[in-house]
Amino acid sequence: MENQKKDPRSVDERLAAYPEMLEQLRQMAEELEGGAGAGRTMDDVADLMVARVRQLGRELMSGCARQMAAQAPRPGGTKVRRHVKQSRLADHLRLDLSRRAGMVGGREKSCGRFASAPA
Description:
The protein is mainly α. It has a domain at 11-71. It contains four helices and two strands; from the N terminus they run ααααββ. Strand 1 (103-104) and strand 2 (107-108) form a beta hairpin. The longest helix has 30 residues, at 42-71. Mean pLDDT is 75; it is low at 112-117.
């Protein structure tokens, strides 16, 4: 978080863009403040808050996913390329697996005692 630029706006100003989330946070604050007085134990209130935060997270992520899907390129438009990181280890493993599949050092791989004698 230290490397990110700090937004000069207040939290209230930033949350104004997300009215549904702001309302849910207000409801959670009310439940938190009045929870123990309503005959609930602090454990019950804590469990309720955990459930509400998880629900809020799911709703936010599904909203973000819907927004990203709406902005995704349409078929026939620009194509998204998959980036695969290559490393020497991956190349080595790939070479090793291809050798194990059939040929080792230019000769067929032997199968224990049933291997044919070299010619």
